[in-house]
Amino acid sequence: QVQLVESGGGLVQAGGSLRLSCAASGSIFSINAMGWYRQAPGKQRELVAAITNSGSTNYADSVKGRFTISRDNAENTVYLQMNSLKPEDAAVYYCNIHVIKGISVLDYWGKGTLVTVSS
Hints:
Blueprint: E1 2-7, E2 10-13, E3 18-26, E4 31-39, E5 46-51, E6 57-59, E7 67-72, E8 77-82, E9 91-101, E10 104-109, E11 113-118
Parallel strand pairs: 2-11
Antiparallel strand pairs: 1-3, 3-8, 4-5, 4-9, 5-6, 7-8, 9-10, 9-11
């Protein structure tokens, strides 16, 4: 079993910054991609940013230039530095990892951390 523990969410004023962390533990053999998704009330969950095990990154257009994803492979941890936050960034942020096990790729999700941005 794999557990993902997210931290770093909270309330911030528009223009402020937050740093989210997600630590993976458990039966981890090989983590491939790690990423962050978000879901605002009444909206579908969307990809915010992702990073492969080689360090390649991908961002949603809405966060490019403001958010930075990084990972610590030794600690099985992924981070999301969020700067210049806007009210529209408010959502529950979910950590996601792809774990390679044999010929399978397993998908795991965190429970989410709430980010609130006041205007």
